[in-house]
Amino acid sequence: MAKIKLINENGVIKGIDPETGEEVPVEFEDLETQSVSTEEASITQSFDIDHSENSLFAPRSFEQSGPVTTKPHPLAENPVLSSTDVTDVSSPAGVSDPFIVQEGGQFHMFFEVIPGSGDAVISHAVSDDGLSWTYDQVVLDTAYQLSYPVTVKWGGSWYMMPSNANGQFEIFKADSFPTNWSQVETALSPSWSLHDPTPFYHQGRWYALFWDTTNSQTRLYYADEGDSLTGRSWSEHPSSPILTESGDNIEGPAGKPITQGEYVEGVFRRSGGDAINIYRFTELTPSSASFSEATNSPIAYHTGQAGHYQAQNVHNFDVVLESFGGQPIVAVDGAENGHPNWEIGINTLGGDYPTAASVTLSADQSVGSGGGWTNLNFDTVNHDLGENFDTTANQFVVPVTGWYEVSLNLFWAVTSTSATSGEVSGSVAASGSNIKSSIDKRHIGVNNDITTGRTTRVFLQKGDTITGQAFQTSGASVPVQAGNSTLEIRRLSE
Questions:
Q1: Helix (H, G, I), strand (E, B) or coil at 79
Q2: Contacting residues for 193 by C-beta, under 8 A, at least 6 apart
Q3: 39 pLDDT higher than 70
Q4: Sign of torsion, CA 245 249 255 258?
Q5: Class of domain 355-493
Q6: Which is the CATH superfamily of the domain at 72-349?
Q7: How far apart are CA 227 and CA 319, in angstroms?
Q8: In DSSP terms, which residues pair with 470 in a beta bridge?
Q9: CA Rg, the chain, in Å?
Q10: What's 81's DSSP letter?
Q11: Looking at the whole model, is its pTM more than 0.70?
Q12: Ramachandran quadrant class, 273 (left: phi over 0; alpha: psi -120 to 50; beta: rest)
């Protein structure tokens, strides 16, 4: 039996003949779900594909024995795209909001290019494998700001629905894919400012998620029944708004939905841009919606690691199945120093367990010179999956014996002091004892703030504790800055 390789633009399914290695058409009755063992993560993944022309934009299906998490793709050199790759925008400052589609045997990425001045535009990059990307050109430039270019193929035509400064749901159609686009419809023009339009097709009907920047809430809409993307009549769902920034800490959709069996899982951006959350819809009809935050949420985090392109922010999360039974590709973006310095990377799905806890300081903490290690008062929880972080004792209590990955990143505000020499150090302590592999030591220079940061893996017993510690020898007190200093714990395996 031939294995599926791709679905082309006419909905024809092709496979690889096991004897000749050539691409051949495959009849529907020849198809079956295949399981692939991913040895690195010790999980079994299965991918279910809707064998129809419209499947190119139906929500992607991913099933895994255990919580779904994400990690950098082992074959990608992240970041794969940055402002230095852009050749046709004056003084580009960043690239963000990536969405990937497949056409003509290649991967195509559409994304926002943030200029040094003026309005952002939509550009295109191309790849043969989804891992290594070549910048192409600007493909959509209007007289107003553009971003978040959700791109889909439906009914044999390509459509793009970028977020825009007009605050409307605008639909563009490709005159010549992938470079030439014309607006064909303004599907919605509400009284509030509509951003990040995220349509998806579910059980014979179009739905859409929107970020209402006027009222800081996520709205849910549905269209009248029918397959066509354009010419639809849109109505707000009775459950809308479904999420608010003030109540749910969510700033709108962050990518196209994915499916987990019969469920639709919406991808959302956490306020402040430090994580991507997943909300599962267990029921969705024009009259009702049942949803809650999924157990695998958040699915992605900023790293907090100095020099990493996702050190401060993670903004977008778009899942693509590289091939039937292949390793999924996830387009992500991030910023080391905040807006507008965004870059784009490629992750994959996998890993045994999500982040267990992520915490920071509520206020700057002064660390005296000499005198041994100072326990840091991490007391503000960004995420605590099993409620295992004790904010009173400022420590993580290990819930299950096994391997853990611990990241400690400290920002030392040296320039606010008289310190001009000596060293600053950060360390993770397990049950009060320093883990030597976690110690990061830096020399103090003149007029330079310093970041120390290191990630270490350690085997811990149930009941052990994890704390962050600091030490410095400048001869003056030096504060560790709140907000930019983080402690994160990820459970790897039992």
A1: coil
A2: 167, 212, 213, 214
A3: no
A4: negative
A5: mainly beta
A6: Glycosyl hydrolase domain; family 43 (2.115.10.20)
A7: 23
A8: 374, 426
A9: 24
A10: B
A11: no
A12: left
